[in-house]
Design brief:
The structure holds three protein chains of three kinds. By secondary structure, chain B is mainly α. Helix content of chain B is about 70%, strand content about 0%. Chain B has a domain of about 70 residues. Chain B is built from two helices and no strands. The chains are: A alpha+beta, B mainly alpha, C mainly alpha. Chains in contact: A-B, A-C, B-C.
Chain lengths: ~140, ~100, ~110
Amino acid sequence: MSSLFSVLSIGASGMAAQRTRAELLVENLANAETTRTREGGPYRRKDAVFESSAVSSPFASVFDDAQAPSGVAVSEIVTDTSAPEKRYMPGHPDADQDGYVAFPRVNPAEDMVDLMDAARSYEANVAAIGAVKDMIQRSIDLLH
Amino acid sequence: MALPITPTTGAALPASIPPAGQSTGAGFQDVFSSAVEKVESLGQDASASVERFLSGEGEELHTTILATTRAELAFDLFLQTRNKVVSAYQEIMKMQL
Amino acid sequence: MLDRLSGQLERYMDLLSARQKLVASNIANVDTPGYRTQDIDFQAEFQNAMGPPRAIAVDGLPVKNDGNNVSLDRESRLLAENDLRFNVASNLMRQQIQAVRSAIKEGQGS
């Protein structure tokens, strides 16, 4: 089984994944009302898909077996493909012939909660790295 | 009136007395050799543990440190004992004039 | 010499390390769809005192919509607890080592 040192990589992978998730949520929130994008049409929300992954660490070796504890990675970023929300606003510059404007399917309240959740998970990974560093240091202290 | 004198029985001889000089030597030698073996074996365990740790096979740091500490303490103890034995021997040698 | 009690302490530290690795994995995968919390049966592994511990599933954890059952509260608590226990064990170990060192030094003088 891999040693405590590999846990530093696991924690780091958690931090990276949560950071990506947070960045996408911030992008969604910033574009909640964007009716016109460069690609045409309203903004489409993006979400990160998480997946467990084996972590590679400079300290690991080829002997690490499948039982090795796993980190996490963003396996893909999914762009929302559902039909946009239509609101009746005839005077709007982006209104179509019928007076409807296409808006992004972003629920700011939901994404705010998600963002706080991502921050909390990020901090938990930071704490994990801290605890493991502490344990490694205690082992070193055995020498004195 | 004199009491009859009962013959005393001689003190029983111990079943075996090893010849002088030989037994002490052999007994001590054994203890010494097994101590050396122990120190060597702990030393090998420590080296193996360090190797496993460095190669990333998953040896925990505390395991390696404990292995090297055991080896070090065993060696120190052995050294102290040996020094005492040597100085005791030297004392005895001084006496035999 | 250092053998019996320190052997147990070492096993304790081994198990705490193994457990902490799983806690870290659980934390990293708190939002991974389908991921299940892993742990070790600490008492059983300590009695057993043989070989690397086995990772087991944890019962009774509520499962979220995406099939994930990691509780950040539980994992954070375990994280702190394992760290503290490791701290205690390593201090006890260090005391034992120092006791032996002192005994050896003591013998030097006489």
